[in-house]
Amino acid sequence: MILLYRTKINWKNIPNMSSSSSSTEHSTETIRKTGGKDKNYAKSLIRRYGEIVEYYLENKSEKGFDTVFKQTRVRSGGVTWEIHPTKWNRMMENDDDSKNVLFQYVSDKRASYWDEKKSGMSHFGLVSTSIKTQMKKQKIHYSYDAEEMLNDYYKCLRKSDARHSQEAGVDDNAKMPVPVYVYEEVAKDLLSSGEIIWWAFMILQWNLMARSINVEQIHVEFFGWSGDMMTCLFAHTKTLKGDRTKMKPFHLSTNQQRPWICPVTAVAIMLMSGFHSTKQLFEAGSAAKSYNRAIKTALQSPSVQTAMKRAGVSEKDVASHTFRKSSATHVSGNSLCAPSIFSILLRGGWSIGEVMQRYIHVGEAQDRFLAHLLAGRDLFETSFHYVCPHFITLPSEEILKGTLFIIIQIFCFFLFLFH
Questions:
Q1: Residue range 182-227, pLDDT digits in tens
Q2: Confidence band, pLDDT 50/70/90 cuts, at residue 263
Q3: How many whole angstroms separate alpha carbon 23 and alpha carbon 15?
Q4: How far apart are CA 146 and CA 135, in angstroms?
Q5: Which of 323, 324, 298 is nearest to 191 (CA)?
Q6: Are 7 and 213 in contact (CB under 8 A)?
Q7: Residue 324: which of 211, 240, 200 has the closest Cα?
Q8: Which end of the chain has fewer beta carbons closer than 10 Å to its terminal beta carbon, N or C?
């Protein structure tokens, strides 16, 4: 009663737990209404396109670039820069890289990345995608030879980047995987420090095998319930190129024995610990960055340091991306009976090829098994089969309203009693 009294809850934002299918339809429809694209990803592409146009304008005379961008006046009276289709394709088909705006931009930018001991490949990938997005907007496309030249260039770029990373010790932010006991110690430290938001953030990242930027975008109404498990409608924007209309519900299991790594407990406490004025579960403006800072602070804890020493990893080997890599390693290699490799790849958002992606989809049995392992259950303990309290059949609306009315009456009684 005290918890209910002291917690501000927006009941409208509590998700409908009736079934996974209804939640899926509602959430997918919501996304389609918003355009089916992730706003942060779209903004990132606009910035990358702006960067290469700016590079072109600054170096056009010095490097002798052809007029591959042209100014176009828009209805609002402003000016925008568009790609000149014929000249852009001609430039891409030319073997002279020194006259290629894209290749020269990548070459110059890579030098600055390498000076900072970084890779920069994700940045260059976004630049290429931003140009293709602009071309699609203008309803133009690469010629066959131009696209072949682009693919060959990026293939060579990845090889040279991998070779340089190995020789120079470039940190590509992949980090090392850590055992589950290190993950548990970090979770305990975040909880004991009162960092409820970032504790829940990390638990969801581990269980969804996700990038932190994608966890940041989870909405409250993406959660549903299927049998004895919670479900979360989720998509990896890097794999789907920003298209979130093909989101899939993944199962989240419970862990009654170790509630500090239980994803259902984490979501429940998040919903009960504050007022959610928007649909996003994590309402911070830059949640992923704040989460990274919280992880760095947690790594300073003596208990976490001891666990890392036992695992043979140092503080510099661990970052937020570590937990995506660690959860995949845990379920695939730390179990004598690992789930199907396809269930792991599909949940983690890793590519399985266009052909297999058409025919192989998330299967409920394997996804539930995977959810149990990710929640920290031990396959060889009886607790692996524990079932959390859940409705076998959905109670009627009258029962739910009646139960809520009784809770309110009891709550009012205690308020009167202790007033």
A1: 999 999 999 999 899 899 999 999 999 988 888 888 888 888 888 8
A2: very high
A3: 8
A4: 13
A5: 298
A6: no
A7: 211
A8: C
On whether the CB atoms of residues 114 and 164 are closer than 8 A, the answer is yes
Nearest in space to 241 (alpha carbons), one of 357, 102, 132, 346? 132
Residue 157 tokens read as: 């770029």
CA atoms within 13 A on the CB side of 117: 7
Residue with token string 């568009």:
82
CA 376 and chain centroid, separation: 21
Contact 328, 359 (CB under 8 A): no
What is the dihedral sign for C-alpha 262, 265, 271, 273? negative
What tokens were used for 347?
């949940």
pLDDT digits (tens, 9 = 90+) for 386-417: 877 766 666 666 766 666 667 666 766 666 66
- The encoded tokens of residue 127 equal 């630049």
Note the pLDDT tens digit of each residue in 142-162. Answer: 999 999 999 999 999 888 887
Does the pLDDT of residue 359 top 70, yes or no?
Answer: yes
Q: Whole-prediction pTM value?
A: 0.59
Distance between CA atoms of residues 267 and 278, nearest Å: 16
Specify the amino acid at residue 365: A
